[in-house]
Write a structure and sequence with these properties.
By secondary structure, the protein is of the alpha/beta class. It has one domain: Rossmann fold (3-Layer(aba) Sandwich), CATH 3.40.50.360. It has four helices and eight strands; from the N terminus they run βαββββαβαββα. Strands 1, 2, 3, 6, 7 and 8 form a six-stranded parallel sheet that branches. It binds flavin mononucleotide.
């Protein structure tokens, strides 16, 4: 089983969260690739995974611009029916992770886990177990799907 995590971050909090989710995925014996959103150049870069996890931190009530651009690119990839989750570090409102989750569910038609994973900036370390569990939940969902 293979998972792809794509993140966008300003100061590294959301990348840290990506790494913790990746640990949870590895504990469940799945392969995981982590990419900065700027490293995804074309929709074929998304080919060949069973699980997709996309994340951005929130600025001014929105996801980062480069994550928005990426979500339009991802619309052209064949993600329908694959397992998905979203995440983001935030300060007080955290819209980014929610909007990404909604796009993956409603636009791409993905098989989403229970909800987005959101951890407050500066408290990502306090959420190690929660983030690892999110990784495990993703793998369980993909295993159920077979
Ligand atoms: C100018 C500015 C605007 C922000 N706007 C929001 C916001 O609207 N909602 C929110 O939840 N957090 C907001 N934040 C907090 C960031 O989301 C938070 O610091 C986060 O941990 C940054 O993660 P990153 O290092 O992955 O970019 C804002 C931070 C800054 C500096």
């Amino acid at each position: 089983m293979k998972a792809l995590i794509v993140y966008s971050t300003r100061l590294g909090q959301t990348r840290h969260l990506a790494e913790l989710i990746a640990e949870g995925i590895r504990f469940s014996a799945a392969d995981v690739t982590i990419k900065d959103v700027t490293d995804i150049k074309r929709e074929t870069d998304l080919t060949g995974y069973d699980i997709y996890v996309f994340g951005s931190s929130t600025y001014h009530g929105m996801m980062m611009e480069r994550m928005k651009t990426f979500l339009f690119l991802a619309e052209r990839a064949e993600l329908k029916g694959t397992v998905g989750g979203s995440f983001g570090s935030f300060g007080w409102s955290g819209e980014a992770a929610e909007r990404i989750y909604d796009t993956m569910k409603n636009v791409y038609g993905m098989n989403m886990v229970s909800g987005p994973l959101m951890l407050k900036g500066g408290n990502v370390d306090g959420g190690v177990k929660v983030a690892q569990s999110y990784g495990k939940e993703l793998v369980s969902k993909a295993a159920e799907q077979g």
